[in-house]
Design goal:
With 512 residues, this protein is mainly alpha-helical. It has 3 domains: 173 residues, Orthogonal Bundle (Hypothetical protein af1432); 166 residues, Hypothetical protein af1432, CATH 1.10.3210; 59 residues, Winged helix-like DNA-binding domain superfamily/Winged helix DNA-binding domain (Arc Repressor Mutant, subunit A, Orthogonal Bundle), CATH 1.10.10. It has 28 helices and no strands. The protein starts with a helix and ends in an 8-residue tail after the last helix.
């Protein structure tokens, strides 16, 4: 089992996407914070707190994505651009108004500025920089120490007292938070403009946003603190630290933590609320109906929980769009499974889970995404996961449509099975798990029955009609009749063409 910090480190990659920053921003920031903390003489207990607070400080950033997208369009863009300004006073006000009008026709931009002013500029600003309650809830559910939770409520406070919620200033802000704040902005400016840009930014915000003594300490040893970041392995370093301060999670603790991942992914838009958990429950039950063992049922359940982490890499404005999507928007959405797998594969113990989660939108006829995998590349776990996620999705409302009534879902699913999009066994399992009546007689792709699929499997592996008849204890004439029907249904006339069809749709079991 992985350790908790390894899970949080993976969650931080999703946070990077939500911030509109390159992957490993938070991990690199954590290394900077730990180096600065050591230089400042922080105790072992304080350094442990720096570790967790840095990994989690911005994890709640997507909680206000819905509100941001309504006022500013691309929530990811405004977050990434905000690192270039001091987030207080006139500079922040100019930045926010520039973001409101950006990309909009002039009249629409003026109207949006008026709307922001009417609703209160402070409310818009606070929506942008406050998510402490969400982050605190995540810290509670992950059973992190009280000091970590307390620090997470302070991450938007400022040394000059002009932060949010404005309850603390100067040395009353926990030094753990002050260290993490400096590391966060410094990492972005160092990556974008080098050591000089980071130092210039720190000097300009010394005594306003940041603790002046910590700024001076960092600048004095900047080469040491920022050195080797370009060649460092942040994920490996975080894993090494976690091995020193944590024990591996139990299976139950691991499963509970992944529920946090699912809820986190669903925060991206109100339209997704509860989707991941509901899909996980449906997928786990369907996996059991499909005959999978306990290990695979658990694997499918957990993959469903994390399958949409990559949503953080897509603007909420796209997810909330009521009209047709542009080609570019569609392509961005199609990257979500890849982003999910990329988030999870950074930690070797999560690689198997990530690989399965990345298949959630694949289809057995090869028409899915992102890789266009066909049946012979999709396990039963993957097939069940895909159907369960699709079924749960159509059961929910989206900006452009109402939920599909339960009575229609079964018809749609059976049609997709017949068309060869979904596996028949997985389809039946999901229908049974969702409470539909499932007939004993199975209809598979192209309208094949269970018996016809059985005969097709034997036929394409070279068995003669006589051998098929003997194995299935039926007459050769019956086999011949079935073969004629099979060829007619799948639109072929030779065994070779039938073999290609069967392999494409996963109807051949080479292990028999």
């Amino acid at each position: 089992m992985p350790r908790l910090a390894e899970l949080i480190a993976s969650l931080s990659i999703a946070t990077d996407l939500g911030l509109g920053l390159p992957q490993e921003h938070v991990l690199r920031q954590t290394l900077i914070a730990l180096r600065l903390g050591a230089l400042a003489g922080l105790s072992s207990e304080q350094q442990d707190a720096v570790f967790y607070v840095s990994l989690l400080a911005w994890v709640g950033c997507i909680a206000d994505s819905h509100e941001l997208s309504r006022s500013f369009g691309d929530d990811r863009r405004i977050r990434s651009d905000s690192y270039l300004v001091d987030k207080a006073g006139l500079e922040m006000m100019r930045f926010m108004f520039a973001q409101v009008v950006r990309g909009r026709p002039p009249l629409e931009g003026v109207a949006m500025v008026g709307r922001v002013l009417a609703s209160g500029f402070a409310d818009a600003t606070n929506s942008f920089i406050t998510h402490c309650q969400t982050t605190g809830d995540i810290a509670d559910r992950l059973h992190l120490p009280p000091r970590v939770r307390d620090c997470l409520t302070q991450v938007f406070e400022r040394w000059d007292g002009h932060g949010v919620p404005g309850h603390r200033a100067g040395p009353r802000i926990d030094i753990v938070v002050r260290v993490v704040q400096i590391a966060d902005d410094a990492e972005v400016l160092h990556r974008q403009g080098g050591l000089g840009a980071a130092v210039e930014m720190l000097q300009s915000r010394r005594g306003t946003e940041f603790d002046p003594e910590l700024v001076d300490a960092l600048i004095a040893r900047a080469g040491e603190i920022f050195g080797s970041l370009e060649i460092a392995d942040p994920a490996g370093a975080v894993a090494e630290i976690s091995h020193q301060i944590e024990s591996p999670l139990t299976p139950a603790e691991f499963d509970d933590a992944l529920e946090v991942f699912g809820d986190y992914a669903d925060l991206k838009s109100p339209w997704f609320s509860g989707h991941s958990y509901a899909t996980a429950q449906l997928a786990a039950t369907a996996a059991a109906h499909a005959g999978l063992d306990r290990h695979d049922c658990r694997l499918v359940r957990n993959a469903a929980l994390v399958a949409h982490l990559g949503r953080t890499g897509v603007s909420t404005g796209i997810w909330n769009k009521t009209g047709p999507l542009t080609a570019a928007e569609i392509e961005r959405i199609r990257t979500v499974p890849y982003l999910t797998e990329s988030i999870l594969r950074r930690q070797p113990r999560l690689a198997e889970l990530g690989a399965l989660a990345g298949t959630v939108h694949e289809r057995i006829d090869g028409s899915g995404y992102p890789r266009g995998l066909a049946a012979n590349s999709l396990s039963t776990c993957a097939r069940v996961l895909a159907v369960a996620d699709w079924y749960q999705t159509i059961a929910e409302a989206r900006p452009h449509r109402d939920p599909v009534p339960k009575s229609e879902r079964a018809t749609l699913l059976r049609q997709l099975v017949t068309e060869g999009k979904f596996d028949g066994v997985a389809g039946r399992a999901v229908l049974a798990a969702a409470g539909h009546r499932v007939p004993r007689r199975t209809t598979l792709v192209a309208g094949l029955t269970d018996r016809e699929a059985q005969i097709l499997d034997l036929l394409v592996r070279g068995a003669s009609n006589r051998q098929i008849a003997e194995q299935l204890t039926i007459t050769r004439r019956t086999v011949g009749s079935h073969v004629e029907h099979i060829y007619a249904k799948i639109g072929v006339s030779t065994r070779g063409a039938a073999a290609m069809f069967a392999m494409r749709h996963g109807l051949v079991d080479p292990t028999d």
